[in-house]
Amino acid sequence: MILVSSCLAGQKVRYNGTDCLNGNIQRLLDENKVTTVCPELLGGFSIPREPAEIVGGNGEDVLDGRAKVISKTGADVTDMYIKGAIETLIIAREVSASIVILKENSPSCGSSMIYNGEFKGVKLAGSGVTTALLRKNGIEVISEEALFQTSAHLLE
What we know:
By secondary structure, the chain is α/β, with parallel strands linked by helices. The chain contains six helices and eight strands, in the order βαβαβαβαβββαβα.
């Protein structure tokens, strides 16, 4: 089973109530090869919600207590991001996920790029909180952008 960000499967769960439907993910969904998950909803957020970014590091730093996830108005939402990551890990284990495909740039789901914590649209290399926790537990995580490059066999 493949675990996929709900927004990539066309569910309107992003912070602003939109989705990021990905054609390749749609195909996998149509073939019943995926289970969808939204770490932010699992962490207790609603739709819509304020955008948030990691301040002071990346997802690994958040898990180690060296960085925080802060909303655009300054609220510390770190605990909700960690809760969502833990719930996602539980689901990944329950469905025996062979791989997890998460939305790039997200403070939860980014696998190679996240926003820099200044809310100015600037990205930096790093992973989100959920990606960091999944990887720490030996689960492969890629972005929708890397799907063709690293795992084309999933589309066969």
